[in-house]
Amino acid sequence: MIRDVTLGRYKEGKGVLYELDPRTKLMGLLLYIVSLFVFKTWVGFALTFVLFLVLRYLSHIKFSYMVKGLKSVFFIILFATILNLILGDRNWTKTIFTLWRMVGAVMASNILTLTTRPREISDALEKGLSFLSVIHFPVHETATIISLAFRFIPILTEEAGRIMDAQKSRGSRIGEGNLKEKASSVLPLLIPLFISAFRRADELAMAMDSRLYGSGNRSVWKKLEYSKIDAMGYILSILILSLVIVERCVL
After folding, report:
1. Which residues contact 128 (CB under 8 A, 6 or more apart)?
2. pLDDT at position 120
3. Which residues does 136 contact at the CB level (< 8 Å), separation at least 6?
């Protein structure tokens, strides 16, 4: 399950989504998630679902590969769905909508990270939040922290996979038995994983210091520029959100 985490991974490929400006993709993701939590009827459900299918098609990423990313949050989604079903007096329509909101948000986020390099996400965040520099908000540092967090997700999952393989080769029964035994078998992973994470963080800090990070203005290797495709992306995102708002107010 740990190796199935796709959030934060970049998958090399070609397609319309790969050509979009990362600022367009970030704004599109934000508007899409808002749309997911705004709709209240099957019309809004259909609009958001069809848009997801279009995005999946434009990304050229296999649906089976994207579904693997849901395994890491499966129990959270399952628990939230059951809780909503119990507290909602077995309202199946509301439960299905809640399930789709969680799944749609995770899948859309996966599409963003799979089609956008972490460096591009960092540049997009820095550009998008640049207006906050007026109040002396550390925009560049914040964008860098978020970018590093995305980079560390696949690194730590791969490291956890290697630790699991090493412990299994020594006779450890990780992931076997009942739920209590599975939970207790995961505990020996935490200490070496934390040590590895701190070691990587220390190496990263030394590398940044050796390159005089923070000593002056940072140059940009690739400038972000909008194109006609980005304009179409903004129009589509705003159109879907507008339709969902109309659907909520009218129906």
Report:
1. 23, 26, 27
2. 86
3. none
